[in-house]
Design brief:
Blueprint (H helix, E strand, L loop, with lengths): L1 H16 L27 H8 L20 H4 L9 H6 L12 H9 L3 H18 L9 H23 L7 E2 L5 H5 L1 H4 L6 E2 L1 H9 L19
Antiparallel strand pairs: 1-2
């Protein structure tokens, strides 16, 4: 259950960041038999080359390189001589590892949970949420459906913040009513300088929080802080 709790936090963060699912997404290639060579591990670089070096020249040709790694041959062959030396393989190991995706958290949740009942409950919640994203019921989540769902979530969050802070119920937040980072960055959020944060201005703040790498640099909204 302890591992499930940690994974649950990861799931929440990933769902907040957004789950991008598209039928044109590039499939991730899984290693089928032997892990990629790692220096200092059971299958280190020197041993890996020795095992697959059929002609004994101390390097690997494209044919000698296991099929699951051949997609990276051009990147590994730095001097373009048609062979991969131990030095080239050591420097290019990153090209042999599977590309990690945000959606991998589902596999991790299934594999590492030590409470099947709890894990099944979490997966059911995720499945239910994804089904809601599929608005036309075609079994797929399009970019348009994802955008619409994101806008709905942002609007819902902004509405909740407005209801909590708008004490006089005039449909906007004054500097006196603002709390937390909303108050700290009030002038930035009040883009028209009228002394209030409107619903639209709040939407922008929620959509582009500061410190998250967004280009707009808008501050995050945390109204619960005094």
């Amino acid at each position: 259950m302890h591992r499930l709790s940690v994974l649950g936090s990861t799931v929440g963060l990933l769902l907040l960041a957004g789950i991008v699912i598209g039928e044109d997404a590039k499939p991730r290639e899984d290693a089928k038999s032997r892990p990629a060579p790692r220096s200092g591990s059971l299958y280190d670089v020197a041993e890996f080359i020795k095992e697959y070096d059929r002609d004994g020249d101390g390097s690997l040709s494209q044919v000698e390189l296991p099929a699951r790694f051949r997609h990276a041959f051009a990147k590994l062959d730095a001097n373009k001589d048609g062979k991969i030396t131990q030095d080239e393989l050591t420097k290019g190991l990153v090209h042999l590892y599977p590309r990690r995706r945000p959606s991998d958290f589902v596999r991790t949740l299934v594999e590492m949970s030590d409470c099947d009942e709890c894990c099944a409950e979490e997966l059911a919640l995720i499945f239910s949420y994804l089904r809601k994203l599929d608005r036309d019921g075609d079994g797929k989540i399009s970019a348009e459906e994802l955008k619409a769902s994101r806008e709905a979530l942002v609007n819902e969050r902004a509405k909740s913040i407005m209801e909590e802070l708008d004490v006089d119920k005039d449909g906007k937040i004054s500097q006196k009513e603002a709390r937390g980072s909303l108050r700290a960055h009030f002038k930035e959020l009040d883009s028209n300088g009228d002394g209030f944060i409107s619903h639209d201005e709040l939407i922008k703040a929620v959509s582009h929080p500061v410190g998250t790498g967004t280009e707009t640099g808008k501050p995050s909204v945390q109204p619960d802080k005094k």
